[in-house]
């Protein structure tokens, strides 16, 4: 891999300073996205884009809470891309990657017309973490598996995490 994610993780931790739950959330989504992407053998540039997007995917929560008093996904998709763009640009990420990451941040709560392996895996990784954090019941998990999960690695992670039959 050509681009190191450590500086982006550090920048996001600083951005979310004091918001331990959000820091832990993005670290878990990043970990699952990295794992799934590697197991699905993504090309290096797609893997790097996926990892960067996973790190910053919820960057819109803070401005959404300030502006709308809500962390709703629709508000995150509006408010997240400009903040992500500023941080990624400051850290020297390539323009094309910045644009794709901002697209993913601006669509990670949109579950129709998912195009691209990076988009698919980001959604799956976020679902893995959200289902656990929200203590989803088995029916909800099974419905997510049926409606959201398409990658072999993401489905296996879901099955392992929730002890579902394969």
Automatic annotation (TrEMBL):
It comes from the Bacteria. This is HD domain-containing protein. InterPro entries: HD/PDEase_dom, HD_domain. Residues 22-122 form the HD domain. It comes from Christensenella tenuis.
């Amino acid at each position: 891999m050509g681009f190191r994610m450590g500086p982006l993780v550090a920048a996001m931790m600083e951005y979310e300073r004091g918001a331990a739950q959000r820091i832990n959330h993005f670290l878990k989504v990043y970990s699952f996205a990295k794992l799934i992407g590697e197991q699905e053998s993504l090309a290096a540039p797609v893997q790097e884009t996926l990892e960067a997007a996973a790190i910053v995917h919820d960057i819109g929560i803070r401005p959404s809470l300030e502006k709308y008093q809500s962390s709703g996904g629709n508000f995150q998709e509006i408010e997240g891309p400009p903040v992500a763009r500023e941080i990624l640009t400051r850290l020297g990420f390539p323009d094309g990657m910045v644009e794709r990451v901002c697209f993913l941040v601006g669509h990670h709560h949109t579950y129709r017309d998912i195009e691209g392996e990076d988009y698919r895996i980001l959604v799956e990784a976020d679902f893995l973490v959200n289902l656990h954090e929200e203590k989803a019941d088995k029916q909800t998990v099974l419905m997510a598996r049926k409606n959201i999960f398409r990658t072999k690695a993401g489905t296996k992670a879901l099955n392992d995490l929730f002890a579902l039959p394969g």
